Amino acid sequence: MSTYPTYFDRDALLACARGELFGPGNAQLPAPPMLMMDRITEISGDGGLHGKGHVVAEFDITPELWFFDCHFPGNPIMPGCLGLDGLWQLTGFNLGWRGWPGRGYALGVGEVKLTGMVRPDRKMLTYKVDFTKAVQTRRLTMGVADGIVEADGEVIYQVKDMKVALSES
């Protein structure tokens, strides 16, 4: 399916952020500090819970991360929207990994449940994205996926019907 590897370390993710991995005008991750993962450990176009593709990634948590100082002073918590953004980032990355052209952008999410928090004492987040649909036509390139975020093995975020599209314009 894809000619790209199924594991990406931090250097490869930074190359993607610079537009070097999938080529100019194609899927690109944000640069730090908005890059919400340190490595992608699994990726496929036909695996996962629904057989339509998946991504698994990890993000190392340290007390020095930029958001702990400002959200909230004296009560540091990673903003939940950053975990959601990490799931969107991975959904778009998977579309680029499939070799599909265009720049990624989030279209929305059907349902979000936040049942835990990321505090500075956590060690690692694990993102798991499972595609329910991946479509590429002349007019539309889009992925629809469900996802979870685990903090040290505990499920803390769950999303349903995340949508990410690629656009060549």
Automatic annotation (TrEMBL):
It is found in: Cytoplasm. One of its GO terms (molecular function) is (3R)-hydroxyacyl-[acyl-carrier-protein] dehydratase activity. Keywords: Cytoplasm, Fatty acid biosynthesis, Fatty acid metabolism, Isomerase, Lipid biosynthesis, Lipid metabolism, Lyase. One of its GO terms (cellular component) is cytoplasm. It catalyses: a (3R)-hydroxyacyl-[ACP] = a (2E)-enoyl-[ACP] + H2O. Pathway: Lipid metabolism; fatty acid biosynthesis. Its EC number is 4.2.1.59. GO terms for biological process: fatty acid biosynthetic process. InterPro entries: FabA, FabA_FabZ, HotDog_dom_sf. The keyword Glycoprotein does not apply. PANTHER family: 3-HYDROXYACYL-[ACYL-CARRIER-PROTEIN] DEHYDRATASE, 3-HYDROXYDECANOYL-[ACYL-CARRIER-PROTEIN] DEHYDRATASE. Homodimer. Belongs to the thioester dehydratase family. FabA subfamily. This is 3-hydroxyacyl-[acyl-carrier-protein] dehydratase FabA. It comes from Phaeovulum vinaykumarii.
